[in-house]
């Protein structure tokens, strides 16, 4: 029996969570088994679990399997889907668009991003210039087979384009109806503050930031989260399971399981390498008793953990098999007791990365053709 509880936070007749809810992004509405949270200081609701197709669609898994994963997400109550034009050099968007074809568009929240190099990767095929943003959004709309994007995100900060140019381009897309809301990804607290101020001047809202966040990677907690709470910006977090390390399937001193991300030569192995030391893996194994006592799998514990942060609106999960979707979705609504949270901190100790300066490393300082 679980000693954690599922939260059914009260909702007013108008559909908003009651004022007793903690934190802006923690306002939530409950429909069936999937919970929905508001994104930033807006009236836009998204599912507490988002299905993302980074490193999978168009690259690591076949299109048929990718579509099955999307169908599993829809069946599990997920309505929010995240992708980016740079994933598999636009193929991920195409696969997602095909998988969602025939669904009621109004019932979905489709997110994508702009920044990374796409197409032939020419000198204007990347960054956040007006030219690239304008051309990129048109390509994304075509590939996703939709008339509008719910949340369009600056995938990184562009040091070589004036921020005023970038935010004006986003403002124009909002006014044209091609984009409903604007967010960013891996921006520092200073960048968020500057972007938020310009958005206000231009008449639209900057409502979200998409950073990496997990039990092992907590760099947003020191500066990004406090600034975001002040500005009305929510976190849409990626890699809550730390590329699969927090599932506990990687055991110190043993070879990675065949077919796992740590054995993938298409990109998975390089992404997970930083977590594959015996020290990290041994500490992760110490989380298993905590998960067992809560009646959760290790993956569910990891996803539920990021959702305890009141500034987090949704956790992005990926999958290479439909059953992974069903397992991770079970983390929605779980509340981890304070005692268990303390045990998690004690188990992981000093292998947790907390340095706020690590966020600034995510955005390249130059754009190379």
Automatic annotation (TrEMBL):
It holds the Pfam family Aldo_ket_red. Residues 347-369 are annotated as: Disordered. GO terms for cellular component: cytosol. Residues 48-347 form the NADP-dependent oxidoreductase domain. One of its GO terms (molecular function) is oxidoreductase activity. Keywords: NADP, Oxidoreductase. InterPro entries: AKR, K_chnl_volt-dep_bsu_KCNAB-rel, NAD(P)_OxRdtase_dom_sf, NADP_OxRdtase_dom. Belongs to the shaker potassium channel beta subunit family. This is Aryl-alcohol dehydrogenase-like predicted oxidoreductase.
């Amino acid at each position: 029996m679980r000693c954690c509880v599922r939260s059914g936070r009260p909702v007013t007749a108008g559909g908003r969570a009651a004022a007793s809810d903690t934190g802006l992004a923690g306002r939530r509405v409950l429909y069936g088994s999937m919970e929905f949270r508001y994104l930033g200081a807006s009236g836009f609701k998204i599912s507490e679990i988002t299905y993302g197709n980074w490193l999978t669609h168009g690259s690591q898994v076949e299109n048929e399997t990718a579509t099955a994963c999307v169908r599993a997400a829809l069946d599990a109550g997920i309505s929010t889907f995240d992708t980016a034009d740079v994933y598999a050099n636009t193929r991920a968007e195409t696969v997602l668009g095909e998988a969602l074809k025939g669904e009621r568009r109004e019932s979905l929240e489709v997110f994508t991003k702009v920044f990374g190099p796409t197409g032939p990767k020419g000198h204007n095929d990347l960054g956040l210039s007006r030219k690239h943003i304008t051309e990129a959004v048109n390509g994304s709309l075509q590939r996703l087979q939709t008339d509008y994007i719910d949340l369009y995100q600056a995938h990184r900060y562009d040091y070589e384009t004036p921020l005023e140019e970038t935010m004006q381009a986003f403002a124009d897309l909002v006014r044209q109806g091609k984009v409903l809301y604007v967010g960013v990804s891996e921006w520092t607290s200073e960048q968020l503050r500057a972007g938020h101020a310009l958005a206000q001047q231009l008449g639209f809202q900057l409502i979200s930031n998409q950073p990496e966040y997990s039990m092992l990677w907590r760099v947003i907690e020191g500066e990004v989260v406090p600034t975001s709470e002040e500005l009305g910006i929510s976190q849409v977090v990626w890699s809550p399971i730390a590329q699969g390390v927090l599932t506990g399937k990687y055991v110190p001193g043993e070879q990675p399981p065949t077919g796992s991300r740590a054995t993938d030569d298409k990109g998975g192995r390089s992404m997970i390498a930083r977590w594959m030391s015996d020290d990290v893996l041994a500490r992760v194994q110490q989380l298993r008793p905590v998960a067992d006592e809560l009646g959760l799998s290790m993956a569910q514990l990891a996803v539920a953990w990021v959702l305890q942060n009141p500034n987090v609106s949704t956790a992005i999960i990926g999958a290479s098999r439909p059953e992974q979707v069903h397992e991770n979705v079970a983390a929605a609504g779980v509340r981890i007791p304070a005692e268990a949270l303390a045990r998690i901190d004690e188990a992981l100790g000093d292998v947790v990365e907390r340095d706020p300066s690590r966020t600034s490393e995510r955005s390249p300082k130059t754009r190379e053709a």
